[in-house]
Please model this.
Amino acid sequence: MKLLAIIPAYNEEVSIGNVVSSIKLNVPEADILVVNDGSTDKTPVRAAMAGAVVLDLPFNLGIGGAMQTGYLYASENNYDIAVQVDADGQHDPGCIKSMILPFALDKCDMCIGSRYINKTSYKSSFTRRAGMIFFSTLVSTVTGKSFKDTTSGFRVVNKRIIDYFAGEYPTDYPEVDVLVKLHKKGFRICEVPVSMHGRYSGRSSITPMRSIYY
Model:
């Protein structure tokens, strides 16, 4: 299968090189695309130096616009599988192969890397954890399927979803939205346990006030 790792990045010059290098080490068969979402630092330079293909957006579009750019690239270049990896170092590329396995067995169209299927060392703030529980409960109620980690951005999708996302992708906090959209379209979604780390640097864009707004 032709595999693409998509990394949306905004001002992640400290971590992006390590993230790209870790993917190359753990999944050497993957091509790596960094979507530089209007960064004002050296993110695109560090990504290119580490060996990634870099697409520069002219200004900051947010995670939705950056990821749809990545899916457009994946669709136009005929990739079979695309994996979304955060640029801040939280996602462990060592887990990617276990996330790809369900596709080889044709068990799903999207695989979510979940922090909450098994107990891990990952810790989040009380506010963020409360939001995760709320969204998991909401999405599970709407879809009639159980989801443990609806806000995880560590995801793998097949070509059918790549082509769908290339044409339609939410712009504002898309991780939760797309689960409902994909369910309504009849796509199969599964979760596998993964480990995650703390951010290498910087701050999350998901603040308590933004979570309440969302």
